[in-house]
Write a structure and sequence with these properties.
By secondary structure, the protein is an alpha/beta fold. It is built from 18 helices and 13 strands. Strand 2 and strand 3 form a beta hairpin. The protein is elongated, with a radius of gyration of 29 Å.
């Protein structure tokens, strides 16, 4: 449902306070103006620079830049049987004023009698507590694939400038989530650089856009599954799920996986390699960046980040160490902010309709609430155990080649080593120009430093999680603990 349809319904139902969230004010104003002409509604617009603008009036008749005067000006447009609308651009900047809030409250209430509609057009939703029940929020959708294709055709007017078939689909995939202006800039930049529209320039601009938002980061690496040893069952599961033909029914799309393991077993690396393997961008959501100092800011940033993820579909969304991301779930110390953010994320995880494959990683399952891993939030919960002998050999071979080491040299004892520790040993050997046996003296495996945590995680995953290395359920038998040394009590001392 587009903005015109929603706005028409709300105006006819006499919703006198409407908040439109949009980063494309020109496009939104154009659509609103066309709607008002079709419906024969009176329209006025206001911003701090140009002041009040009423179509049909000269500049001499236009009121100045006083926000209070702009609110009251809508009453001058009232007709006996008509509807009057005033659009206040970027009016969230003035919501800290008690006078402005009171004037808006009175105008919205009075609008029920004379059919005057106050529309706030802003890139963010920051409604004061006094006005929360008076406004309805409408989102101005970003351009869809058809609109992006139309923009591309308008930019690429010469023969050979516009790709076709699968190449065009890659361009549209890359440009998903951009505004109309951003898409135009990206397509124009691609024409200047390469003479035709390609996805590379679009990805460059998209990366900059995400950096400016500060909510998400985009990963585009060259490593695929061939650079990741082991995890055979997990690789096969995710690749088959994501390489199925495109499905129009959101209910049939893959949703994602939850990865549990001790640190250093390749969870994050797997997620990055997955994007390259299936041709999807990897979006990294750092929950720490969502936290804000103002009341309600963290929750709003969470919703904004999830909207951006939806807009950038198809993609892979990675949330690393999710148990730490929402560490304040008990509500202590943050007035329940973490709980509300987590609730928003859970709702989106279960209900989102976009083609987003979510990969969450966790090192401590005890900190995750039971509802997080229920069915339909994830397609599977996998446990990544410490690598076995065959996997370790693959990892050794990979990193020995990467760091230019002698493949014939003796390798150290690697019992209970993770892939990260093997990489660390090879990196140190190359950095310090020593053998692997010498570098091994500088590596302390996590199975030693956090032995209790590793065993506890294995015990929990036993029979509950899928095995990342081989098809089926993960099974693990805890080795029998050695009995404590008995102390013989002597009956006598000679």
């Amino acid at each position: 449902m587009n903005i015109c349809t929603r706005l028409t319904e709300y105006v006819r139902a006499c919703f006198t306070g409407i908040w439109i969230e949009s980063h494309e004010h020109h496009e939104a104003l154009t659509e609103i103006a066309e709607l008002c002409r079709d419906e024969q509604w009176q329209l006025a617009t206001w911003d701090i620079d140009a002041g009040l603008n009423i179509p049909g009036q000269s500049e001499a008749e236009v009121t100045g830049s006083d926000p209070l005067a702009a609110i009251r000006a809508v009453n001058a447009l009232v007709t006996p049987d008509g509807t009057a609308i005033i659009v206040l651009q970027n009016f969230h900047r003035f919501m800290q004023s008690a006078e402005v809030v009171q004037a808006l409250s009175r105008q919205i209430i009075a609008g029920k009698q004379n059919r005057t509609i106050v529309v706030v057009l802003s890139p963010v939703v920051q409604i004061p507590t006094e006005l929360e029940k008076m406004f309805v929020v409408v989102e101005h959708d970003l351009p869809d694939r058809d609109q992006l294709a139309e923009i591309a055709r308008g930019i690429a007017t010469e023969a050979g400038e516009l790709p076709e078939g699968n190449a065009l689909q890659l361009v549209l995939d890359a440009s998903a989530g951009l505004t109309r202006m951003e898409a135009e800039n990206a397509f124009s930049l691609s024409l200047v650089r390469q003479g035709c529209i390609t996805a590379d320039a679009v990805w460059e601009l998209k990366t900059q856009t995400l950096k400016k938002s500060g909510l998400l980061s985009l990963y585009r690496g060259a490593d695929d599954f061939s650079h990741l040893g082991g995890l055979t069952a997990l690789k096969t599961f995710c690749k088959r799920a994501l390489q199925q033909p495109s499905r129009d029914d959101p209910r049939k799309r893959p949703r994602g996986v939850l990865l549990l393991s001790p640190p250093g077993c390749g969870k994050s690396q797997f997620c990055k390699a997955l994007g390259q393997e299936v041709g999807r961008p990897v979006l990294n959501l750092d929950v720490g960046n969502l936290l804000g100092s103002l009341v309600g800011q963290s929750e709003e940033r969470t919703r904004q980040a999830l909207r951006v993820i939806d807009a950038m579909a198809p993609c892979v969304a990675m949330i690393d160490e999710v148990e730490k991301a929402f560490s304040g779930l008990n509500g202590n110390g943050d007035s329940g902010v973490s709980s509300r953010m987590f609730g928003t994320f859970l709702s989106w995880l279960a209900d989102h309709q976009s083609d987003v494959f979510v990969v969450c990683t966790a090192n401590d399952v005890s900190k995750l609430p039971p509802e997080f891993g229920r069915s339909e939030r994830f397609d599977g919960i996998f446990f990544l155990d410490l690598p076995g002998r065959e996997q370790k050999n693959q990892i050794w071979d990979q990193y020995i080649r990467l760091f230019g080491l002698n493949p014939e040299q003796e390798r150290p004892e690697d019992t209970d080593w993770t892939g990260a520790e093997i990489r660390s040993c090879c990196r140190l050997a190359g950095l310090l120009e020593m053998t692997l046996l010498e570098a091994r003296l500088n590596v302390v495996p996590i199975a030693v430093t956090a032995a209790e945590s590793v065993e506890r995680l294995r015990t929990w995953a036993n029979g509950r999680c899928l095995d990342a290395d081989q098809p089926g359920i993960f099974h693990w038998e805890s080795p029998r603990r050695k009995s404590r040394r008995s102390i013989k009590h002597l009956s006598s001392i000679n």
